[in-house]
Amino acid sequence: xxxxxxxxxxxxxxxxxxxxxxxxxxxxxxxxxxxxxxxxxxxxxxxxxxxxxxxxxxxxxxxxxxxxxxxxxxxxxxxxxxxxxxxxxxxxxxxxxxxxxxxxxxxxxxxxxxxxxxxxxxxxxxxxxxxxxxxxxxxxxxxxxxxxxxxxxxxxxxxxxxxxxxxxxxxxxxxxxxxxxxxxxxxxxxxxxxxxxxxxxxxxxxxxxxxxxxxxxxxxxxxxxxxxxxxxxxxxxxxxxxxxxxxxxxxxxxxxxxxxxxxxxxxxxxxxxxxxxxxxxxxxxxxxxxxxxxxxxxxxxxxxxxxxxxxxxxxxxxxxxxxxxxxxxxxxxxxxxxxxxxxxxxxxxxxxxxxxxxxxxxxxxxxxxxxxxxxxxxxxxxxxxxxxxxxxxxxxxxxxxxxxxxxxxxxxxxxxxxxxxxxxxxxxxxxxxxxxxxxxxxxxxx
Length: 446
Known about the structure:
The chain is an alpha+beta fold. 32% of the residues lie in helices and 29% in strands. The protein has 13 helices and 25 strands. The chain has a 6-stranded mixed β-sheet with strand order 15-16-17-18-20-19, with helices on one face. Strands 3-2-1-13-14 form a 5-stranded mixed β-sheet, with helices on both faces. It has a 5-stranded mixed β-barrel with strand order 4-5-6-8-7. Helix 3 links the parallel strand 11 and strand 12. Helix 8 packs parallel to helix 9. The model has no long low-confidence stretch (mean pLDDT 88).
């Protein structure tokens, strides 16, 4: 398995590829506020009854800081101050998002920020040392002697720290300290870590990566991965395959070999998947044919759930095969679920013949991220535009881009690989060439 990562001015995109097929896909806007995002915010007002402060980020995003997430509470523990003693109106704080809010709720933030490494998690204001539950007491005592912390600092030793030399742990701690000092000087929103680093930590058994960003290469190599960073103009060819996969993953229909297909319907409360035989019908051995289709469908369904990040309640209407076939399908689903990083529960077939399962929820599905009130979302607009602009930049100096202008990220305009002339409308690239040619094109359209 290999991570493939691409960064554009506004987007971070990461795909996990196994055997030439994309099995996971992750993306985020670089200026998007998510769990782990670090940002500076000003205290707007205090709410003594709730014992909380309401903050405004530099980009205008409202935030919620409860009293138990303030540094003053951490410093005075076990005594708890009032919110007025902990923070003051007008004060600017460095905070980190710990829970994403959904309208009308604000994002929940903390002042007890963290920086994650391969072996350590650093808490600049944590004030205590913690260990992974997988480390036994003897190993914990050995690790505690390797690093000396300042009184205000805190540290968590990951499981992998047991195999690391003391010099490696100290070097990583110094890197994490430097990141904190960098954030104290910053005034803009910043993600704690790039998306590919976060995902590589989550699946530590993946040992290879293909990236476009120099810092990602250095960081992944420090984590022990074999990393390739081609120095080429334009895009990584491997990401073009990812684009095609994601385009298909937004369709309701998924074709199987031989003409059978899946119909995937995501509704508000659950996901329904229908298995259809198409033209794969053998009248003489219908049940055997249906069992074969169901087995192929079970494997593809588990891949699609992971690729599309579909979660919650899921009902699958398999074809009416034999009872042995149903047992085999259930077993296949459980085998594939064991390879998942998210918890999947397979409940089996109901009396109506539906197969029930649930998948642990972690963020929105690919379809939910791509639509906003029935229209392409902000991230979908950038996903469509920015890879294409990166290709165009290899042979043109400017492009006429049509898009909903209110949805465009300021980072695209600041860091685009070529000059952009923007036109309001449905997303698309209208013209490319020299700056003069693009200006002439716009004049002719007026």
